[in-house]
Amino acid sequence: MSGNVPRHVAIIPDGNRRWAKEHRVTAFKGHEKGIGAFERVAWHANKRGVEHLSLWGMSIDNFTKRSVEEVAWLQRIFRTEFKKLAKSKDIHERQTRISVFGRWQELFSVSAKKAISEAMNVTKDYDKNYLNFFLAYNGTDEMLQAIQYIVDGGSKKVTADVIKKHLYTRDLPAVDLVIRTAGEPHLSAGFMMWDVANAQLYFTDKYWPDFDEEEFDKALGEYGERERRKGR
C-alpha cells in the first residue's frame, strides 16, 4: 500500500436500513450496527494517520421525512454516543477535537444537544486529530446559508476565500477522499460541495454496518495509487 495517506477523509455512511431489511431486523437495529462500524473505522483511520475524519450522520431530509419514532430513536443514539465520546479515554489521549456541523442546534432535542455540546466543549482545545460530524445537514443548505450571509454582509466582491469563510467548514481543510457505502455512486444533496471539489471518490457495495478496517484500507490503497492532476 502507498504511504500517501489522505489528510482529510469524508464518509457518507449509507445502507443501515437496507442492511436491516436484508437481515430481517428493525431499522433501529441497522442504525445500531452502523454505530459499531463508526467506532471501528474512526479509531482505525486515526491509526493510519488520517488527521481529519468527517462523517455525515443525518441529512435534513432524514430528519424531516422519516418517521417521528425513527428520528427520536436516532437522537437517543446521538445522545448516548456523544456522551461516550466526551468521556472516551482514546479521544483524550489522542487529543481529538470533536466538531458537529448542521442544523442540529435548532432541530434536535434538548438532551441530544446537551450531549453534543458537552463533547465539543471538553475537546475544543485539542489540535492533534479532528472528528467531524454532520447532523441535520445538507450541502446545498450550507451553501445557501453562506451566500445569504455574504449578501447580508454587503460584500462587493465574492472570492473563494470569502465563500469558505462563511461555510460551516471554514476551519476544515479540503477533503482529499470521499468514501460512500451501499453501492450508491453519487454525492447526495451537495455533501460538503465546496470542500470535495478536488477530492478522490471511492464507492463500495458494502452497506455501512458491514464496512470495516479492511475496506477502509482498500479505499486508502486506491487513493494512494491515483495520480491527482488537479487540472494539470
- Looking at CATH, the homologous superfamily is Decaprenyl diphosphate synthase-like
Number of helices: 10
Which percent range fits the helix content? 40-55%
Total tally of structural domains: 1
Gap from first CA to last CA: 25 Å
Please tell me the CATH architecture by its name. 3-Layer(aba) Sandwich
Mean pLDDT: 93
Number of strands: 6
Task: Tell me the major beta sheet.
Answer: 6 strands, parallel
- Which strand order spans the largest sheet, edge to edge or round the barrel? 3-4-2-1-5-6
Uncertain stretches: none
**Looking at the structure, what is the overall shape?**
globular
Rg is 18 Å
> What is the CATH T-level topology?
Undecaprenyl pyrophosphate synthetase
- SSE topology string: EHHEHHHEHHEHHEEH
Q: In terms of structural class, how would the helical and strand content be classed?
A: alpha/beta
Percent strand: 5-15%
- CATH level 1 name: Alpha Beta
Structure description:
The chain has 232 residues and is of the alpha/beta class. It has one domain: Undecaprenyl pyrophosphate synthetase (3-Layer(aba) Sandwich). The protein has 10 helices and 6 strands; from the N terminus they run E-H-H-E-H-H-H-E-H-H-E-H-H-E-E-H. It has helices at residues 16-22, 27-47, 60-65, 68-87, 89-93, 104-107, 110-123, 139-152, 160-165, 213-225, and strands at residues 8-12, 52-58, 96-101, 129-135, 177-180, 200-203. Strands 3-4-2-1-5-6 form a 6-stranded parallel beta sheet. Helix 1 crosses helix 2, helix 2 packs parallel to helix 4 (68-87) and helix 4 runs parallel beside helix 7. The longest helix is centred in the N-terminal third of the chain and has 21 residues, at 27-47. The radius of gyration is 18 Å and the shape is globular. It starts with 7 loop residues before the first strand and ends in a 7-residue tail after the last helix.
